[in-house]
Amino acid sequence: MSGTVHHIVTVDDGLAFECGPHESIIAAAERAGWELPASCRAGVCGSCEGDVLSGRFVTPSRQDLGPERQGPLSQVKLCRVRPCSDLRIAPREIRRRDMSSQKVIIAKVLRIERPAPEVAVLKLRFPAGVRAKFRAGQYLRVLLDDGEERSFSMANPPQQSDGVELHVRYLEGGRFAEQLFHQLQPGDSVRLRLPLGDFYLRESEAPAIFIAAGTGFAPVQSILEELLKKGTQRPLHLYVGARTPELLYRHTLAQRWADAGRLRYVPVVSSAGAGCGWIGRSGRVHEAVLEDMPDLSGHEVYACGSPGMVAAARATFEQHGLSPAHFFCDAFAPSQEVST
To answer: Looking at domain 103-196, what is its CATH homologous superfamily?
Structure first.
């Protein structure tokens, strides 16, 4: 008997769903109406780590399928797992996927700003009377004409619900980035699906450390603008990393928050050449955090940026006292690196 082979993935609490050939268990869970923790979906950031209790699987890279592995194994990046048999897994959490809160909106381009050579700020306006509910820090998906989607975090706070602000880094060959930087004009239409994601501020009085690298500033901006509007008394620390000083594209805004005594702001440049005139902190942004706060016990960390930065921050911060349960992240992986 021939046909496509599907495998059953059972979560440790007894819930089960079907996983197709060459399909990740993260994608299969979503297709079945469930959500597992995931961020970069490229096997780097570690947000999806869980245990494979039994069964055979592979964790393919872009180069090859890799060797077959056999459970039980702990701390497996579940976003890369493709079953070779039925599996039993223990993720950090699983919850019902709430599609009822999402909506598709056709927005209009209000304006496009270019605050840095590689960054565009896209401001979109919803149709009259249309509003979108979301949590500060969540993201949306731009729906392209051929059915593909691109994910971007919303930079505006939820109070500004009649439109969205997106921060887009130019990526050569990137479908939406190329369109935005070279074709899109005010008045053009963009189809969106929102909201999505579990990167949002948790209710707590613990000191909060925000780490934003590149356009990872977008969700951090959304969270901080909402926090500051509410007049929070939590100690807030904002570390922003960029390759060069000119790529600190929201430096003026962050400095204004700091000057008003609302938070502590530390910009960090990783490639500050001798002739650039930079007199601030240099190096890797997560290392700057540890230089200032070597003991992270009792803190919460919200990290957003490249998968590599997020993974490095997670690993080193846990070595310096941060509880794994208090590390929240949104890792930005280029779409061609993401396999579902």
So the answer is: Translation factors (2.40.30.10)
